[in-house]
Protein: Proton/sodium-glutamate symport protein GltT
Organism: Megasphaera lornae
Amino acid sequence: MKKLGLSTQILIGLILGALVGYLFPDVGDKLKPFGDGFLRLIKMIVVPLIFSTLVMGIAGTGDFKKLGRLGGKSIIWFEFATTIALAVGLIIMNITEPGLGVHIAASAGDAGQVAAAGKHSINLVDYVVHIIPTNIIDAAARQDMLQIILFACFFGVGVAHIGKDGETIVRGCRCIAEAMFKVTGYVMHLAPIGVFAMIAYTVGSYGIEMLIPLGKLIASVALATFLFIVIVAVIAGAFTRINFFHVLKSLKDILLLAFSTASSEAALPGAMKRLETLGVPKNIVTFVMPTGYSFNLDGSTLYSSACILFIAQLYGIQMPIEQQILVMLTLMLSTKGIAGVPGAGIIVVAATAAAFHLPTEGVAILLGIDRILDMIRTICNVCGNCMATMVVACWEGEMNREKFKRRYDDFVQGKIEEYSQN
């Protein structure tokens, strides 16, 4: 008998949890400690994982003189696209409001956070000052993610500029990150139990109708992803005078692979080869695509922004526009470098939720549909990186409209073997 995959186990946990909560609400209430234990395991991972990956990513690519013009242009476009992704995610969530309709009260453990979130009036000056840590150890102990991110950015830039001595620190951070990726895998294997317990408790306490917002969230994220791809394709087309809808059409089999496997890495080799076929120089493809997998995961950032607002809506917490802007700025940094790792998207959402005083119980509820959301955001990640690679190639003057049209026409006619060697 074939072993069930983790996503299937989580789905089964969701269904069984809903049934137990609906049929035996008293039993569901007693299962809550198992869900709380799973959430604590996720929180345990947050600080070392985000700190090590941020330092590793920034120290490895933070020396912009070394990166030169190509690296600078790539990062400018990455941040531009990431900003659009975050903005689209938040706008669609504010319009559709999938989390409204079923009010869920937070547990006693999160009641203080909810109260703080509900009463907190944002003063941007005070908030910016608060982001600067006076003691990074204290910030890590409190899991103040904004302070940790700021320190990691400064530390990473410093490491990048101390020469060979910094390589030892980068290797250490890489080892820590790899170890934490392993720990993340171990924790995620407990996700079916955590999801089962949290859904059983939630349905038992608030009724089966609380599952309706999850379907609305899937539809909202799918709509936001579609709009993001269209917007970026139009902007990129206006900038380069290339039809980016033809680019997407030529990538349809690659995108199907990304969607079905929910793995950006699985689609990477084919996507790189296809871009070379369409006329993008190999040196640009081999630089921009791998860099984009750390700095340009648009689908993951869009998903994260949508999930943060969904959790706030689910628990009836108001998030004013200035707080949503701070969420955007936080996610622009916290999603760098780890969003492509299975299960890391949930960790980023949990860390950001805690930073903005949102109940992290909502994270366990999201796990039940995370596989579907993962498939959607993976398509967005691959599309975003492929479009970024072509934009940078055009920006560098190494590709033009006529060259692309000729290669595209040859591709659709099945003449791709002509370009396998050049």
Residues 61 and 117 are 36 Å apart (CA to CA). The chain has one domain: 6-417.
